[in-house]
Amino acid sequence: RVTFKKITDLKGELPKGRIGNLEISRLILGCNLISGYAHARDLIYANTLFKAYNTDQKILETFHLAEMAGINTCFITTPNFPIFNKYLKLYGGKMQTICQADLKVSDFYGDIDKAIDYGATTLYIQGGYADRYVRDGKISQVAAAVEYIKKKGCLAGVGCHALEVVEICEKEGVPNDYYVKTFHHDNYWSAHPVSQREPFSVDIKKSVDHNMIHDNIFDLFPDKTTQLMSGIRKPWIAFKVLAGGAIAPRNGFRFAFENGADFICVGMFDFQIIDDVNIVNDLLAQLENRQRPWFS
Asked: What kind of fold does domain 7-285 have according to CATH?
């Protein structure tokens, strides 16, 4: 029989940092699991399983448990807002939201407007969109979206899988307040060879070749990410730090924080929350090998 940790098993208070005027827990609740989206390589049942487990009631309970455990911020998409706002109303929750904004060509600012109408705390450009716009030489589109968010009175971030997005944003002086960049090591079985990794392929390409990408890796060049982000003087939220569940939490969390991440965003089922909070508390209390200053 499996026994899951309870709120009484917490080991101390979760540390927080700042992005602008926002105080944010170092561990942020991700939204893929409550959205029913699994990065499950070629497993065809995982999305359905996630949705079957995370009923509306379970999602409400997950938000509540996370907030009780000291996680004061979650990632969210606009379709998640009805259930999230229901949580705020029913439970008296105070959790903040970091909403990813899609930049569809047909309705470029539509998702931003919708998120702000729902009450998003801060918004960032969804990584897949930022990757594609930068790949296609359209950094001006990313900059325009960032400026639009800021004019609406919110802090604005840029998400990405490709490190080239950060490079170009810095070069062009995009006025984003923070970055949301994938970050994990590649020491796990399903990572394909470095020699076969193509820039801008994450969340864009899926190959049937076992030596090519297939929803199996989210930071193609982690060493380069570490080097690049060491010189970036803006807060960095690292996501996909467990490579879609391929890396153990203590291992992935340590790698992210030691190598420069200011915050980590982690998709968690309710039964994982207490353990993950305790791991972050333990790691941050004895983090000795971090060289990048905290920018939060």
From this structure: TIM Barrel (3.20.20)
